[in-house]
């Protein structure tokens, strides 16, 4: 597995990104579920929960302790995940999640995650978990930094993220990929997070296959000559 991660500070502007299947013939989706939930008001006055195989959106509003309106909004679907909240401290929380169960057409799987974490980044989150359901093991997990000790001070105003993972997988196994975003705020203001996922399967590089074949041939020849 290899990993490439990059972060940079940005203005706290969150827009829904997209899920793109870069190789439609390489990923065979068995099931997909999109879910949103959240709450607003302090104490909680309203909540929402929606789950479907197609795009879903949910929203709730309620008054916070200061008497100001708090609103939470979530969107989940093939075009990505987005969570947004605005209002008094602790007056709204928003969540969005996508789950895909699939098989890979080839033995190499590539996953790209990209998106944005809004202002006061340690209170907002984007994450994913990849599981091999057939083997019953978690393959990998990732989460954007959300602790002050993990963040560069320049990211307090928000940051973009762009991460790539590569995995060796078994085409006969069933896998699940869960993506999630959360938006919170411990003081008055906005909080937001969004993420898109690009997942595709590729054939191992011909050069690697050729080198492996040459290596096996050389080993066999040396053994035949009893020099190994």
Task: Give an overview in words.
The protein is mainly beta and about 230 residues long. It is built from 1 helix and 13 strands. A hairpin with a 4-residue loop joins strand 9 and strand 10 (about 135-145). It is elongated, with a radius of gyration of 22 Å. The protein has one helix at about 205-225; strands at about 1-10, 25-40, 45-50, 55-65, 70-75, 80-85, 90-105, 110-115, 125-130, 135-145, 160-170, 175-185, 190-200. Helices cover about 10% and strands about 55% of the residues. Residues about 1-25 and about 205-210 have low confidence and may be disordered. It has one domain (about 1-225).
Short description:
The strands form 2 sheets. This protein has a 7-stranded antiparallel β-sheet with strand order 1-11-8-13-6-5-4, with no helix packed on it. A 6-stranded antiparallel β-sheet has the order 3-2-7-12-9-10, with no helix packed on it. The protein is elongated, with a radius of gyration of 22 Å.
Question: What are the defining features of this structure?
Answer:
mainly beta, six-stranded antiparallel β-sheet, 1 helix, 55% strand, disordered N terminus
Strand order of the largest sheet: 1-11-8-13-6-5-4
Secondary structure tally, helices: 1
* Mean pLDDT over the full residue set: 81
- Overall spatial form: elongated
Task: Specify the helix fraction band.
Answer: under 10%
Radius of gyration: 22 Å
Largest sheet: 7 strands, antiparallel
- Unreliable runs, pLDDT <50, ≥5 residues? 1-23, 207-211
Beta-strand residue percentage: over 45%
How far is the N terminus from the C terminus? 32 Å
Structural class: mainly beta
Helix and strand sequence = EEEEEEEEEEEEEH
* Number of domains as seen in the coordinates: 1
Overall number of strands? 13
């Amino acid at each position: 597995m290899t990993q490439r991660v990059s972060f940079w500070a940005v203005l706290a502007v969150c827009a829904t990104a997209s899920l793109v299947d870069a190789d439609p013939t390489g990923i065979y989706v068995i099931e997909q579920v999109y879910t949103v939930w959240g709450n607003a008001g302090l104490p909680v006055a309203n909540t929402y929960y929606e789950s479907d195989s197609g795009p879903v959106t949910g929203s709730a509003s309620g008054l916070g302790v200061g008497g100001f309106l708090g609103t939470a909004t979530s969107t989940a679907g093939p075009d990505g995940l987005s969570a947004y909240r605005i209002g008094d401290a602790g007056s709204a929380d928003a969540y969005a999640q996508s789950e895909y169960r699939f098989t890979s057409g080839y033995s190499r799987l590539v996953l790209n995650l990209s998106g944005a974490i809004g202002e006061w980044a340690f209170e907002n989150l984007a994450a994913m978990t990849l599981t091999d359901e057939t083997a019953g093991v978690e393959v990998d997990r990732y989460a954007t930094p959300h602790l002050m000790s993990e963040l560069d001070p320049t990211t307090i105003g928000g940051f973009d993220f762009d991460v790539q993972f590569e995995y060796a997988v078994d085409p006969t196994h069933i896998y699940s990929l869960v993506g999630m975003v959360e938006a919170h705020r411990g003081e008055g203001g906005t909080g937001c997070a969004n993420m898109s996922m690009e997942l595709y399967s590729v054939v191992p590089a011909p050069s690697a296959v050729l080198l492996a074949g040459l290596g096996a041939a050389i080993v066999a020849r040396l053994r035949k000559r009893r020099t190994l």
